Amino acid sequence: MKTLGETLKEARDRINLILRKVSAEVDIDQSLISKFEKNERKPTKEQLIRLADFYNLSHKDLIISWYSDKIAEDLKYTESTTEILKVAEEKINYYKTQNNGK
After folding, report:
1. Which of 5, 35, 63, 69 could form a disulfide with 39 if both were Cys (CB 3.0 to 4.6 A apart)?
2. For the chain, what are the domain ranges?
């Protein structure tokens, strides 16, 4: 299992580019990309999509990784994480049914 940062770093290493070149191509500050790769910062969804397009990575896979990293970070020191995630899933399904009725 990889973090979003590890995935982004591997993608950059795979095409053998330095941060400066990626930064120029995707119009994201080089220091920010470095922090994304080190898991010190999370990209915005817009930045994530630009990086996915540049690295030719799946939008869906990166967005799943992005959200799961955020959730894992929030819950890593919390007890009952499995129960919390189950209830959250139930709430999401409830909200979707409520929105479908509108």
Report:
1. 5
2. 4-76
Alpha-carbon distance 62 to 88, whole Å? 21
User: For residue 85, how many other CB atoms are within 10 A of its CB?
Assistant: 12
H/E run at residue 8? helix 4-14
Q: pLDDT tens digit string along 16-57? A: 999 999 999 999 999 999 999 999 999 999 999 999 999 999
d(CA 96, CA 36): 31
Report the alpha-carbon distance of residue 19 to residue 13 in Å, rounded: 10
Integer-rounded Cα Rg, in Å, for the chain is: 16
User: Do 75 and 84 touch, CB atoms closer than 8 A?
Assistant: yes
Provide the whole-model pTM. 0.83
Residue 61: both structure tokens together: 């896979």
